Sequence to fold (222 residues):
Amino acid sequence: KNEVEQSPQNLTAQEGEFITINCSYSVGISALHWLQQHPGGGIVSLFMLSSGKKKHGRLIATINIQEKHSSLHITASHPRDSAVYICAVRSGGNEKLTFGTGTRLTIIP
Amino acid sequence: GAGVSQSPSNKVTEKGKDVELRCDPISGHTALYWYRQSLGQGLEFLIYFQGNSAPDKSGLPSDRFSAERTGGSVSTLTIQRTQQEDSAVYLCASSLLKSDTQYFGPGTRLTVL
Fold:
């Protein structure tokens, strides 16, 4: 079992829909990152969180430390949100990130 | 301002040759990370540099891989005697401080024939 599991692996939705991507992990962590990778490969860090909730524009990230679970939400989804979303966790008192396998999101106009 | 840059953007080499991949982090960033993304696989951590501290090399897959960071700025990842399984995109990231938001470079796509 991977330390970091994401679901779903693939998600296709219509423009305007509310999107939820889930990340579960099996170890104690010091921080969780959400990353976005567009076709062509560029990776952008969306959020880094260790508790509670963060919001940036139409994106919201939440984390429940007790349940070892995080969600990334996208409101009013748009075709430009189409990308792979990757969850990564930092644990063990070091800087090493362990990555999930990503969720491929496609938003259809 | 300039982001993280990597060179070359693409590298094709023959099995058994050595390659050097370069990363220029954002100026002033003290932490630098190398990752690898193989086709069909997720990202994996390779090595981490923080200031003048000894690097965390725990992710390097074999002793054919090494990296250095000179003057706390530019970093070079060297792969000796390349193998076909080394084919991947090698990504560099930097952050202002350790445990901070990471900024990723565009990556170097390495193909070993």
Q: What stands out?
A: Chain A has no helices and eleven strands.
